[in-house]
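Support request, please re-run this one:
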Amino acid sequence: MAYSYRESTKSFGEAKRQWPLIAGLGALALLRPVMSMLGWLEAIGQPFASIAATIVITAVWIAAVVFARVTQPLLTLLLVGISYGVFAIVVSAVLSPILTGQLQGPLTNPFGIVGVLVTNAIWGLAAGMLATALMRMRQRS
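Re-run finished. Output below.
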């Protein structure tokens, strides 16, 4: 399905109104790295804890856009994934020197920045596809 320029700018205009939701859901995903820093993921047991945390965060993202009746769930959750990537890069830049005495993480390698953003964009895109399917199912019933 091809979109016109007007339709694409309308979609981004609608997404702009969603920024508090986008930022909030992106920040929520910071629970996973915080749990890792505190050693909780290791205490629960890897890789189960990381996978479970990711599934729970994804479910919350999907539930939030479905219950908020977001008009563009795919775009919204794509932006949520990217915002989480940006937040994770910033948190890593701030906390790694404090915790380890030196800068570590994506900022030490430009490919790392791209990798974090792309990976989390894909995560958001996948969640957005699930949310879109769920919303369509709800509309039919």
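The two ends are 25 Å apart (CA to CA). Helices lie at 5-17, 19-28, 31-37, 40-44, 48-67, 73-100, 110-140.
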